[in-house]
User: Which sequence fits this backbone?
């Protein structure tokens, strides 16, 4: 569904990504792991058109989207849940969700909203509250719900478990699996490497802007280098 070919991107003189090749097959969960500053967020931003690539290609369903405008990329079927969630704290929960559908002009937005409320009943209970009054876990649910409101075929999640209590983290990973089982392809950036490898089919390890390792997630989880660097050596 998504293929990055020899993709390079950066910030001025900082070469954050150096010729990345990465494939996300339709229907799968692919996890991208790596240390702080490895370039994971940059991968997400460049896919979404928030940073222009320096070279290489981004193919989404065979179409080259590299350098396209973000709204165009969203309308093609990609959506990002950004690092830090970016909830609009002075808007209500309902308004935040409606923002996710702002580019749609079909008549199924209300039905999708009801589906989001079924998945996350707490968001329906709190729909009139300001986004900023929600707990961290609820804000993450809201960020995921907002992204789903654009009806993505490919959902990009940047560190969804960051800063959340273990029980809430377990909920978030369960939700990601459910969304995937219902047909949405997922590219997941995570520091919670153990969980990210558990739910993924394929995994990529990013080190200072290069892919150092990739393969089936079960194999990556057994790799001694990964165990030592990201799984506490166990
Ligand atoms: P983290 O887990 O800390 O978010 P990451 O793997 O997502 O890390 P990136 O945020 O993609 O890493 O950063 C990759 C590199 O690009 C780092 O060296 C970082 O310092 C640099 N970088 C990121 N954003 C900018 C920016 N806006 N301007 C300049 N350099 C940046």
Assistant:
């Amino acid at each position: 569904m998504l293929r990055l070919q020899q993709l390079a991107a950066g910030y001025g003189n900082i070469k954050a990504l150096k010729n990345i090749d990465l494939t996300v097959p339709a229907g799968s969960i692919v996890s991208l792991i790596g240390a702080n500053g490895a370039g994971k967020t940059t991968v997400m931003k460049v896919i979404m058109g928030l940073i222009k690539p320096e070279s290489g290609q981004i193919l989404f369903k065979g179409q080259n989207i590299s350098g396209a405008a973000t709204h165009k990329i969203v309308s093609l079927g990609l959506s990002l849940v950004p690092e830090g969630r970016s909830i609009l704290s002075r808007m209500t929960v309902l308004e935040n969700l409606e923002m996710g559908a702002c580019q749609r002009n079909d008549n199924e937005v209300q039905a999708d909203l009801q589906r989001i409320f079924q998945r996350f009943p707490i968001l329906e209970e709190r729909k009139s509250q300001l986004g900023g009054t929600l707990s961290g876990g609820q804000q993450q649910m809201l960020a995921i719900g907002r992204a789903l409101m654009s009806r993505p075929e490919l959902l990009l999640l940047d560190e969804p478990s960051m800063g959340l209590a273990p029980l809430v983290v377990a909920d978030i990973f369960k939700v990601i699996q459910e969304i995937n089982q219902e047909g949405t392809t997922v590219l997941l950036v995570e520091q919670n490497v153990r969980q990210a490898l558990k739910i993924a089919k394929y995994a990529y390890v990013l080190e200072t802007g290069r892919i150092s390792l990739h393969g089936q997630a079960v194999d990556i989880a057994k790799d001694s280098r990964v165990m030592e660097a990201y799984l506490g050596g166990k």
